[in-house]
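User: Structure tokens for both sequences below?

Assistant:
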Amino acid sequence: MNEANYGFISKAERDAQLANLKTLDNKKQISDYLLANPTATQYNLSISGGSERMTNYLSLMHQSNQSNFKETDSKKYLINFRNNSSITKWLDLTLGANYLYNKDNNNGVTLTDLNSWSPYDMLKNPDGSYTNIHRYYTPILDRDVPTASFPYSDWTYNPILEIANRKLSVDQSQARFQGALNFKLLNGLTAELRGQYEYGNYNTRELYNENSFEVRKTVNESTTWDSSVDPNVFIANLPLGGILKQKRVRTDLYNVRGQLRYNRELGMDHELDALAGMEFQSLVGQTFENPPAYGYNEETLAVGTFPNGPGGPNSPIYDYMGQEITFPYLNTFGYTTQRLFSAYGNAAYTYKQKYVLSGSYRFDASNLITDNPRYRYAPFFSIGGMWHAHKEGFMENVDWVDRLSARITYGKLGNYDPSTTFRPLITPSQSPDLYINGLIASFASYGNPTLRWEQTSNWDLGVDFSLFDHKLFGKLDLYKKNGTDLLAELSIPSIHGTFMQKLNNAAMVNKGVEVELGTSQNLSSDLQWTGNLNFSYNKNEITDLFVVNYNAFQMPLGGTAAYVKGYDANTAWRWQYSGIENNQPTKIGPEGQPFPLSAFPEGDPLTYLKNMGTMVAPYTLGFMNSFKYKDFNFSFIVTGKFGHVFQTLGFNYPPNWVSRVLPNAKLTEVNSGDPSKIVPLPLNKDDSEYYIWEYFTSSMDYLIQSASHVRLQEVNLSYTFPSSISNKIGLNNVLLYAQGNNLFSFYSNKAGEDPEYPMGSLRLMPSYTFGLKFDF
């Protein structure tokens, strides 16, 4: 189209090319060459044995996963060992170890790649040769750039070839070693000393050989070429050959806990169970990242050098567009520590097996909290009671009540948020700045000198019951949680260098109810039924928050910037579309008046942004049923979430700064829609503010719909072979099973979209598992 508009091709040539493109459809080629059927294969082996004083358990697992994309897969290996030994009458020893190795190959394309291609971007020509999926505006490249004179004359891209010329992998290994000594000191008194060490290695390796587009693009674009000075001079600033990128992350975790426990019946009517202990945990994380190795040869392990240096103010180099560039050449390192300390104790006293009184108290401390002891060490506690009413004398003749217990608890818990720090932190640059020829730094955190634990006070009232000879059982819980000292983005005087900072000054209340009902019945001599129904409701509200001025730009984006006192923490704030005025789309602004779509209104955003509801389901439902008929078992699980909203897919109005944006599936909706109800395409050819439409059109009220949905989450069918059959082949407990997951979903929104797997991402697909288990 552009070539015809600028007169480089005729209208007839343009129409012929468009007619040809209309005949092309790359769906089959994408399916044949790039996509795969996702599968998972798992093998398990467990071995156990021992004696009267020792038991051993060993399990091995191997799993292979094939993703939706060819050349993207993973393999996992897991070894687990556990030993329990009775050393003496008063000492028990427990040892455990496990090792996990996981290797991911990520050579295949991604969903982002697929979304960036047009339907007519074929992967192969009719003669079987590879096509060029344009990464450049090819006509300009052909007319104005002497591509053959660059280090690599091939500027084409084809995903099939790209996959074949790169090796992208992630190796992960993790080992854990555990040990515990249990001392039986006195009657009812035991002591335990437990330790754990865990380490993990996470290695990322990306290798592109010189036939890959990634290498050719990087080397060619970094070449100095100034057509206005001498169009025949080309200076290569990177060596020929492959490019290798590597990064390694290591974590070390230490955990030590010592604990005393006393559990004993005191006479006929009293029972005491108490424990006290201390625990220390240290987590150290280290990152090591190498600069890209240019000119890398996988066979000889040779690495190239910068022909003209890495660039910089003393020796600047320029790319093929005339822009000054520098190449990373320094190693980067990272080091983090997290240390936690806890001292705790709890006790429960039972009287006549009817009345239970319990309580707990603990001190927690963390190095992520301020170094001021007033805030670093935080005490937390809980207290509760339970009454087993079914054991009372007046309930002896109530035969239909098997169990009836009432309980109440109150406590205060803590949480620390590592997203901010108690001191200002800076992040230094990894290489000298181009202009000052020195290292610069930016603020990673402005600091919160009174950073402290977030605290939550909990009230819980509950009833547990079992009726009609256990044919109906369940529990009911009512709770209220008051969160204080919560971290949130709050307004501060700009004299501090920023007008917003995370501080412990927010408060929130959560109220809810949880109900669980179950049944277990013998419908006949061969048929048994077990069913469970779980229901929960939760409502939250921000009860304290200081914000001088809400930010209309940030509120529709969510997060703590969207917190408003008196509202749900997950409220969706959206712009209200108000139709066309003066040939321009508008939205509701101050005083309810239409305001230009591309302009930011002043004043309080709460007066013109619309509360569309909460984006987290207040109601959740789970329903499980299991039927056993002779040696067959059949079960299914249904889940549901209700009362919330989500944002449906809207049209991707292309911004000015992106050269190529493919219209998504909502183009027809925009073209045929009512401009008074949905933002149309620009009505003016020279709209100078169209570049900002993308932000507003993606945050419109008409995109919000109900997120309520129901899923058939899981279906299981199994058959247990009779022992008369399995014993003949030397096996025990032979079980043949089949399982289906995510088989069906029902959505209440008119768009027919899955609220948890939005359009443009990989949708939730049904999966099927078949297996065989046996003992020998």
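Moving on to the next sequence.
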Amino acid sequence: MSEEILKALMELFALVVKQDGGIIQKERDYVINFLEKQLGSNLLIKYVLFFDDLTGSVKQVDEIPENSTPSLRDSVKILNICKQINKTLNKGQKIVVLIRLYELINLSKKFTPQRLNITSIVSEVFRILPDEFIAVEQFVRNTEPEKLQNPAILVLRPGTTLCEICNKLHEGYSDTTISILRIASVDLYFIRYSAKDQLYLNGIPIVSDIIYSFPKGSSLRAQNRHAFYYSDINSKFLSEVQTQKLSFYVKKVSYRPNKKQRTLVNVDFSAEQGNLIGILGASGSGKTTLLNLMSGIIEPSAGSVSLNGLDIVRDKKELEGVMGFVPQDDLLIEELTVFENLYYAACQCFGNKSKEEVTQIVGTLLTSLGLFDKKDLKVGSPFNKIISGGQKKSLNIALELIREPSVLFVDEPTSGLSSRDSEIIMDLLRDLTLKGKLVFTVIHQPSSEIFRMFDKVVILDQGGYMVYFGNPVDSVIHFKTINAQINASQGECPACGNMNPENIFKILEAQVVDEFGNYTEKRKVKPKQWADRFKILNSDEPVKEVTKAPGRNLDKPGRLKQFMLYLSRDLNSKKSNTEYILLTLLEAPVLAFILSFIIRYIPDPNSDVYYFAENENITTYIFMSIIVSLFLGLTISAEEIFHDRKILKREQFLNLSRSSFLLAKITLLVAISALQSFLFVVVANPILEIKSLYFNYWMSLFTTAFCANMFGLIISSSFNSVITIYIVIPLLIIPMMVLSGAMFPFDKLNRNISRVDKVPLIAEIMPTRWTYEALMVSQFKDNKYSTLEYNANKETFYSIQKKISQADFNNVYRFPELIKVIQGVDQAYKNPQADRNETLNDLKLIKNETERISVLYNFPAFRYRESLEPDKFTPVIADSLLSYIARAEAYFTKISNSASDLKDHFYDLNEEKLRRLEKRYYNYKLEEIVTKYYEPDKILRYKNSFVQNTHPVYLDPDNKGFLGFRTHFFAPSKNIFGARVDTFVFNISIIFTGIIILYFILYYDLIAGLVKFVLSYKSRK
């Protein structure tokens, strides 16, 4: 209290006692006693003399002059003094001043109109509510219970059966009357007792018939008798106004994460509405585990947790929105402002309210928390602090306060805060209980002030044993008594009334001393022994069980609105991060420029003229652009869900739509990937003079990035560490690079995983294999040069070259090899000692190849197909086959010649135009790769068939059934559902199909479940 205020109070006291005849000795003694509590001995005399100068000499006779009224001058002075005090003291302090003023008047019993007029002036200037003013006057003036009939006053006497509190007065409190005044507007209690026996307030002796403040966590007791606690008194008052009843039961709960480890053992207690319950224990004693079990985040191995008869695990649907959870770590989105964080949390709870109504609710709550002036500030990170730690913690709790859950779980709310901030946070939680809420909080090393705030505490010892549940003050007495300490009945310091919770753990963890006086690692009392002793000594009765379902203040928005909320929240958080925006916008074009600039190759060292056709790095560019898209897609998504994991832990109590959350994430990431792909293409392609197929390039890169987004979200959801996530990324990227078909030909891989006729099955699940093939084939056959029409039948360069390629392969490779086989079979039948198994395989090959020629090239079928069996084959059939092959050769020669003539004729007419188009749109290196130009083995025999190992880009695959879409690499088309589909369209469709599959894996968190199963299996071994 400042000197200015103390002097003002002395003047106010002096003006009161000067009325009606002047001051008497009792009044002077009261003021001196008041000053002794405020000042040290060195200043006491100064203020006593100041007060004496104001009041004059003490009257020896207690006389009241008739018709005495305060002078106008005194009235004005009183008004000015009150206004001066009004600017400095808070409302609670003003109540205390009013009570002390009434006490001063009560000493002489001079309740004259003049003195009461002064109290009225003080009350009006202090803005004290009329009902509270009346309650104060009634409480101070009267000691008889009959005259204390007021809802704000509670009177406790032996023999009263009105409440359970009074039952404590039967033993050791004979002829004791206790009166309690509650000032509801500031949640203050004042207490007075009348008795011959000595009572102790927080361990300090108090005087009968004197009014004392009864702060939070206080206790009142007679010597060695049951105590009255603040929580008892508070619960009695609140029971009159609280309409919702809660009964929270933890019934013999145990938890084992694995066979070797035990975290909690047989924890058993109950609690009701209006209570603040602390969970204390040494590190590793299972405090947070217990909180997670009670909140339903994890399931107990044994026992059950219930709220109003509803099981926390089994009845989650019925308890939706009833409970709230505030973890130790921040739940705030660092990039959003204070207002935005709370606004989005409110929108998730009040789906039926308009934007204006939600804004008003958020503003009101921020004002009550003292954060309204900080509403437009970003929350900031631990490395970029913008608001204080206490303000952050208040905002974290406000995320739950906005919907006022019936039960709130808070993990380490004071961790890392100053003592002042810690008390503010605990006051915030305490205020929740005044509304009938039940609050559980894990607390670490609480101060005496905070320790007293709890109505009950749960104390856990190593191994998860519950060694105490009850009032915090009694906890000290409980352990001192068991430890046989000489001052066991004293829970508080007899001098100052403070408590040191650390003494509890010193007793719990006391170690045995060896013969040399050194502490050993062996404890005097094991955790199980402490738990067993508490069970024996515990006399608390379980709370009355409530069966009515708890109310909930929750109206979830629909799935679409949730999606929009999530999308808006993510978008705003990213927009506010300037570094993120710059990197997102610049990363793709910068990489595009670096890549394209480096590989812009001119083969002639004496020329500065660049031609797209001569650049041997185009295929490398296609491959690297896909890898860049893969990398960008993974990096922007790899932390998305991990970053929101703590927020999701809180939001799971609202049972919000997971699909809305995921689709919002995906939508934003897809938009970013689409933009990055566009920027990459519009920068790199012009530098390399890729003059067409912009959409094909963009679509290929975009689908690759989209697929990478999904992979990133899956690993983000599956692992519990950022380091693990970034270790996993190379495990995804490298196989996709190796099995893309760009680095190593698929037919040159290990024979255990590869095939010569198809893409290996393991490569089929790699998105890069599909997009690389799509872009390579599209660049080769869909460019302006390849699609130039040569005649009225719309035959193009590609289609003409395809006919030539097919005819040449058959005439140059297939037919000669087939003739050798036919001749071999013919010779074998003429030689009785020939290998019949080899002959049988040769016949199968002949049959397969003749059928393929007929089906693929619309050539008449071999007439004697049925004779291509071991028991039917004859030299005549061999001759027929050779004639059939000769006719086929003539057929394909005609096709080849016709196509070549058309090509040559058109070229002669349009030589300049074709050369220009070729140099601008065709690429020779790409042609070498998609035609396997340097492949030495042009034809291979595999499984009784010939495999075309050259010009794959001209070879349409066999139609092998309804879902026979697996083909050789660089196939120009694919077969699906009996139809032939262009490779680019088909491959992009496959990627989107894979994305849908990945979404379901993400939605059901299958990889996370697999990881947990593997880890749990390993821990069970």
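User: Anything stand out in the second?

Assistant: The chain has a mean pLDDT of 87.
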